[in-house]
Amino acid sequence: MTLYLFPAIGIAFLGVLSYVVLFVGRRGRGFPDGPPTLPVIGNLHQLPKKKVFLQFTKWAKQYGGMYSLKLGHGTAVVLTDRRIIKQLMDKRASISSNRPRSYVSQDLVTENDHLLWMNNTPTWRVGRKLIHQDLTESLCEKEHAKIQHAETTQLLYDILETPDLWINHLKRFSNSIIMSIVYGIRSPASNSPYISRLNELVEIWARINEFGATPPVDLYPFLKWVPEKLLGNWVTRAKKVHDELDVLYYRLLAMVRKRREAIGSKGCIMDRLLDQQEKSGMHDHLVALLGGVTIKGGSDTSAATLSSAVQALITWPEVQKKAQAELDRVVGDDRLPTIADYDQLPYIAMLVKETMRWRPIAPLGVPHALSEDEVVDGKFLPKGTICFVNVWGLHHDENIFPDSQTFNPDRYEGRTQFAAEYANSADFNARDHYGYGNGRRLCPGIHLADRNLYHALAKILWAFDLSMAEDPATGKPIVPDTSIETGYREGLTNAAYDFPCKFTVRSEARRQTILREMADAKANVFSKFESTDFS
């Protein structure tokens, strides 16, 4: 009897094998066009390990504003068309707000408690709402502007004291603002163990998220059972990030709880989360990571964007001179620029937008996934389709941004409102840039982040002349590498490699203004916050 089973088993095996060869990795009928596929692997063999967004942009020129890729048995679409993005990501946000499966980020690093990587679930919606309610435009204008002004004042003071450490000062500045708002705790020094460890962990996680840095277990789950030492110890690396981030975030949570026991609530985001924890049903790990995702998102992103701005300002000094002329006309010597000057400083607003366009920190954003089948322009997109918004391609579309590699804030003349105004516009052509995401995944900190950049760039250009540093051996200027291919890191945050810059205070009067306003910030703002000076 057993002998008769062998032919049946053989036929079944051949059937499965035939199905895999004939269908897995191949583009389905009615799907958007795209590059040719191979059986089983689809287009995986064509994806570069570095700067994949550059290849996506090349394909967009060949296959159009919506094309498909086969990633093993899965399907992805790459979107470089403003109209389609508005239709699918914004108007159909109810079905396009999930995240693709990521075993590394969702299971190993965050236990599915990280707002960035959660699906569009009730827990995600509650968490996002709780974060957003403290980052509204009105609160940014009425409450957070005082913190931003004070922290930017310290940024100027720190650059005065140790200009060679300007990149570290940018990281401290952006981290301290969001820390103050989330935890009621400042980051007063760029060399604190906390800042150093957070930056290190963010960098390690970014490297883990690089394309090809871990095996494609979401496409080929059997790879989970291959000994990890044969695949770069990827599980151990991911779990180490998980453990150390948890230590960091739980320690901050414990500091808030201890303070609440001693003096009560200070009204920061974490206080509000703890006030509503029982009602919302959030466990401690979720609460800790809600705080963590907010400080992570508010720290490295602003610092990376400002680093790109500095790079552009010393490469195109005429832009710097034009911005300084506007600041000199509006502000003068005896005070720093404030948020109240925004409407009178349109070129600074344009400078912020051009920085976001020129070197977007997330050239592919964070991918979305469809929770239902959908048809777009007559093309079928099955449930589970991964949706990449090709931010790099959109920002360097020569039809919209001619000579796109040139840094030119004048592109945005007449469009100087904050980014949220354009992101929420019904007119997809009005969108200034895609640096803050789309639809229900639009960055909840968009109002704060945009104002961080304004405060920093307005004050830095008011205070300093920026120029290329000189090579001490030759006396020649050290030209920064502005190439996206060779001058920028890979990872979730597309940041420039560190480069030197010379900061020269523009006058003695402005130096004295910085010192005076720093003393005021210490007395009237910083004194209200605890410090993260812990090891």
UniProtKB/TrEMBL annotation:
Gene3D superfamilies: Cytochrome P450
Single Gene Ontology MF annotation: oxidoreductase activity, acting on paired donors, with incorporation or reduction of molecular oxygen
Cofactors named for this entry: heme
Binding site for heme: C443
InterPro entries documented for this protein: Cyt_P450 (IPR001128), Cyt_P450_E_grp-I (IPR002401), Cyt_P450_sf (IPR036396), Cytochrome_P450_fung (IPR050364)
Entry keywords, A to Z: Heme, Iron, Membrane, Metal-binding, Monooxygenase, Oxidoreductase, Transmembrane, Transmembrane helix
Transmembrane segments: 6-25
Family membership: Belongs to the cytochrome P450 family.
Protein name, entry field: Cytochrome P450
Natural source organism: Exophiala mesophila
